[in-house]
Amino acid sequence: MAGGSAEYEISLISGKTIVEYLDPNKYKIFPFVIPKNKNNFQALIGLIRTQKIDVCFIALHGPGGEDGTIQKKLDNLGIKYTGSGILASQLGMDKLKFKKKISKNGICLPKHVLFRKGDSVEKLLQKVDIPCIVKPSNQGSSIGVSLVMSKKEFKNAIDLALKYSNKVIVEEYIAGLETTVPILGNERPYTLPVVEILPKKGRFFDYKSKYKKGGSEEIVPARISRDLTKKVQEVALRVYKTIGCKGFARVDLILKGGLKPVVLEINTIPGLTPMSLFPKSAKAAGISYSELLDKIIEYALE
User: I need a surface site. Which of 63, 134, 257, 273 has the fewest CB within 10 A?
Assistant: First the structure.
């Protein structure tokens, strides 16, 4: 848990909650906190070797933990771990690679333009429509993401995103119902109930809405028709399989006009804090937090 990314605090909460809910009668647990601003895994590798660890539960969010880095190290050690492998993790974390892979499979995505550090903001502004979404190309938890409602806000949004990545995605803003679909499984993955998201603290489901108390209202199952629910879940499963995910992941979508599923992104290591969407959906499906952890570990051991 923790690590060197901007999602340090969220990762720490996820990790501590996992430790709290793992059944000590089933598991011998070794919590391991990677220091802030570091992704030095040498001490972790030492622990794995000395304690003969069977499986690593990865609660590292963002670069270093969610982008294939830790997965590659564990593969080299021959150690099983929760969640997706190297390639799926890389595709999930890099939003540009994700978009390219998904669009080839006929899945609907928002239109986007790429901005690189050093490019002209004024020239870019001529190519995009306002409102728009500005985001770093490789962060999670909505860190560095802005909803731009006027030209005046545009440069500040670009500057914020550049703090986290040299590549920035400027995406069309799609008005609609925000939803997310948690998925479990390896070869035969299945969806959990669709979550409807109503942001309250921010203009959209931003960092404050996700993690501040009362920041949003999550309704499970989503208040959409049975047919639309099935359609949203089918699209999410297609994304999961296209990326090659394993164990668990969460696909975020927006229903354009309340009807058409448009894929925003995939989270290959979804948050597992008490406020997170995945455990809420699992609970609605009759799966307790501890049972959810058991399932994720079982998939890692398959």
Answer: 257
Q: Which is the catalytic residue, given 216, 271, 281, 289? A: 271
Residue of 66, 67, 196, 265 marked catalytic: 265
**267 carries an active-site annotation:** yes
Shared domain for 182 and 253, answered yes or no, is: yes
Token duo for residue 73? 């190290």
Together in a domain, 72 and 98: no
Parent domain of 51: 8-82
Q: Could you give the number of structural domains in the chain?
A: 3
Do residue 67 and residue 45 come from a single domain?
Answer: yes
Single out the catalytic residue among 66, 178, 196, 252. 252
**pTM (2 decimals)?**
0.90
CA distance 270 to 250: 6
pLDDT tens sequence across 239-263:
999 999 999 999 999 999 989 999 9
What are the structure tokens assigned to 112, written together? 């986007």
